[in-house]
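// run 5 | inverse folding | seed 20
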């Protein structure tokens, strides 16, 4: 009873931290209201970028996006696509000149193409991401995500490196009615323990990496274990295949919703009960473009290009995130007015497997390269149970201390006897433009 009261109070406090953003989202009425909302925030981020970032200032003046301090959104689609390479080459010119006045922090992404990228983000981006996430759970799925009992099957390298979750994280999870289960490294014993925790805790919903949920379900099915039935399951971080979706829904006897987000842009899209992924346009302006940078038609596949509407520390305008998707219908049967994606098609990773059957999630290796600015592009390949090869394109001078740290953390999960070989390549094309950033020759045998 006491815990429930504390959780209720904290939920209200957390909600109040992005109350303004929630209020604005709530007052967007239909497709026309969304259009006005997007125009308002596109103009705000474009004008801010023009005034505060040298990179955007020169481009906007050249193509006429801004003339006499007036924004011409008709010219928006003439803004050059922002790539990871462009960000690296113009990093300082993309940082807002008013950065010192903002609550900002570094973030990094491995992306879906094995190209790590350092970014600067701010408090505004986080507040809008939280408000948008709350909208998704409340208005599309139909649950109060903040106070609901939930189990998160996600990755934490700190848990592996330090041997346990820190006290601060434990308290935070308790107060947020959350049980966190690390899925970066899962043995059969871990799976058995996780299943007991799920059955005892009885969560309202379970959220996890797609492949982690799938492997857990395979174990449940193999051992014929009776499971608690959550209200629903949420998958993310990886492409959801039909095979995995069917298996997860069958084992948990619950609806599976796929969620699409990224470290660069936060919330992007979330699935409704009819299977379409509604693009969360409150947080980002999303375009699906063909090879000629033109919008695709419904049912066509294209590149995902994102304008972050609320990150003023380092504005990302028309940023190519590295994923591909199929455009869905504008009007979904569920009644929600947000446009849709039919499917995310360009997020595929391999997990690694050890001799004893332990599964090591591919995201673990990606995280090891975060904020490693000397790595331009990489791919980690499991050639055998204790043999790892890392293909890498250097960006400047190699940092031997960080290289050794990466090797130690790989051995921590793959075994001390694991042989790690680094192989320098001249450019990303030698790995492949759309390569997997983790590739297992064991799992694919």
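// decoded
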């Amino acid at each position: 009873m006491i815990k429930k009261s504390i959780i209720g109070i904290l939920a209200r406090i957390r909600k109040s931290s992005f109350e303004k953003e929630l209020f604005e989202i709530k007052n967007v009425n239909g497709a026309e209201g969304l259009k006005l909302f997007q125009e308002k925030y596109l103009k705000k981020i474009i004008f801010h970028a023009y005034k505060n970032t040298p990179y955007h200032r020169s481009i906007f003046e050249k193509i006429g996006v801004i003339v006499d301090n007036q924004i011409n959104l008709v010219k928006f689609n003439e803004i050059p696509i922002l790539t990871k390479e462009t960000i690296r080459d113009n990093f300082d010119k993309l940082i807002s000149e008013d950065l010192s006045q903002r609550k900002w922090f570094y973030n990094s992404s491995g992306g879906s193409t094995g190209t790590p990228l350092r970014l600067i983000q701010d408090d505004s981006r986080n507040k809008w991401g939280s408000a948008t996430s709350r909208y998704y759970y409340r208005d599309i799925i139909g649950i109060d995500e903040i106070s609901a009992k939930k189990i998160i099957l996600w990755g934490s390298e700190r848990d592996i490196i330090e041997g346990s979750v820190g006290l601060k994280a434990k308290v935070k999870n308790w107060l947020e009615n959350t049980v966190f289960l690390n899925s970066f490294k899962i043995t059969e014993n871990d799976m058995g323990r996780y299943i007991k925790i799920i059955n005892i805790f009885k969560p309202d919903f379970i959220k996890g990496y797609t492949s982690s949920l799938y492997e857990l379900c395979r174990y449940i099915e193999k051992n014929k274990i009776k499971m608690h039935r959550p209200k629903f399951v949420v998958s993310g971080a990886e492409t959801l295949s039909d095979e995995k979706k069917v298996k997860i829904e069958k084992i948990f006897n619950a609806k599976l919703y796929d969620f699409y987000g990224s470290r660069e842009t936060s919330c992007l899209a979330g699935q409704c009960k009819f299977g379409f992924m509604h693009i969360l346009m409150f947080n980002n302006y999303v375009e699906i473009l063909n090879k000629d940078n033109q919008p695709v038609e419904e049912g066509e596949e294209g590149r995902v290009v994102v304008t972050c509407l609320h990150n003023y520390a380092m504005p990302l305008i028309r940023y190519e995130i590295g994923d591909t998707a199929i455009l869905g219908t504008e009007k979904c049967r569920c009644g929600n007015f947000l446009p849709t994606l039919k499917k995310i098609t360009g997020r595929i990773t391999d997990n690694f497997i050890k001799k004893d059957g332990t599964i090591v999630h591919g995201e673990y290796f990606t995280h090891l390269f975060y904020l490693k600015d000397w790595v331009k592009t990489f791919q980690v390949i499991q050639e055998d149970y204790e043999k790892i090869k890392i293909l890498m394109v250097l960006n400047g001078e190699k940092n031997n201390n960080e290289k050794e740290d990466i090797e130690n953390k790989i051995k921590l999960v793959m075994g001390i006897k694991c042989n790690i070989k680094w192989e320098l390549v001249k450019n990303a094309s030698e790995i492949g433009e759309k390569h997997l950033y983790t590739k297992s020759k064991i799992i694919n045998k």
